[in-house]
Amino acid sequence: MKNFGKTKQESNSVTSQKTLLNEFIKEHDDLIIYKTYIDDGYTGTDFNRPAFQNLLEDMKNGKINCVIVKDLSRLGRNYIEVGNYIEQVFPLFNIRFIAINDSVDSFKNKESVNTILVPFKNLINDEYAKDTSIKIRTSLNAKKKKGEFVGAFSSYGYMKDPKDKHKLIIDEEAANIVRKIFDWNVNYGLGKLAICHRLNDLGILNPTGHKKLELNQNYNNYSANDNKYAWTPSTIRNILSNEIYCREYNSRKKKSKKLQNT
Fold first, then answer.
1. pLDDT in tens, 221-257
2. Interatomic CA distance for residues 39 and 57, integer angstroms
């Protein structure tokens, strides 16, 4: 089963990796593609990645018997976890492991897995990830101090300025929904569930649906149920407790009172 479809936002790194893997498989008659597991944009230090978890499920269910990666860093960048999968988990399920650029093949060359170079490279990958994390965090903190927006996606009700991605502007369509939620809750006493019913009855997309379908953003929320984009009490709770929304709502109330008093 080939699953190599390129998404609109797929990174160049993933594209080059797939090209390398395809070429390698073409040159080896004993290998057949079942599925490609891609966690584009996820950190390699975390093994709770959606596609990797899917790989583990297929492995445990006997659907695959071989895992191929470009190099050891593509499996992960956590020294202890990578070593555990290579030395314990994969052998337990009779999984052949291949890291092309590191010349690792647990089936054709068992010694390639046991060589001192494997844990050494995993340690280097781990340290590289930590060093990169520190540098990125330092850079982001510097931008935050200058008042620049550094997130991948803005909060519901806001959007990145097309002219400056580090600046947020009001997304009026979503902002109006946020205002209604506060108005219904504060002035009309509607609870979270009642607000959900009202929004769903009006056919208004929840924040995930708005970002994906109306703003055409490559945004995924893996807690969304069946991609139906319906409102849930937890979503309403998050909005009503969000400090940014609360400050904005209170600011608007104060302005309204001042206008009434003049």
1. 655 555 578 999 999 999 999 888 887 776 665 555 5
2. 15
Domains and CATH numbers, the chain: 12-133 (3.40.50.1390), 158-261 (no CATH)
Class of residue 12 by CB neighbours under 10 A (exposed 0-12, middle 13-18, buried 19+): exposed
Locate 89 and state its tokens: 């988990």
Q: What is the pLDDT of residues 101-126, one digit of tens each?
A: 988 999 998 888 887 777 667 666 67
Structure tokens at 88: 């314990």
Task: Kindly report the average pLDDT of the chain as a whole number.
Answer: 81
DSSP state of 230: -
The separation between the first and the last C-alpha atoms of the chain, rounded to the nearest angstrom, is: 70
Under DSSP, is residue 120 helix (H, G, I), strand (E, B) or coil? helix
Which amino acid, one-letter code, is at 64?
A: I
Owner of token pair 């520190």 = 134
Pairing of strands 158-161, 104-105: unpaired
User: Which amino acid is residue 150, in one-letter code?
Assistant: V
CB 178 within 8 A of CB 245: yes
pTM: 0.49
CA distance 195 to 15: 43
For residue 71, count CB atoms less than 10 angstroms from its CB and return exposed for 0-12, middle for 13-18, buried for 19 or more: middle
Query: What is the SS3 assignment for 198?
Result: helix
Query: What are the backbone dihedrals phi and psi of residue 158, each rounded to the nearest 5 degrees, phi first?
Result: -130, 165
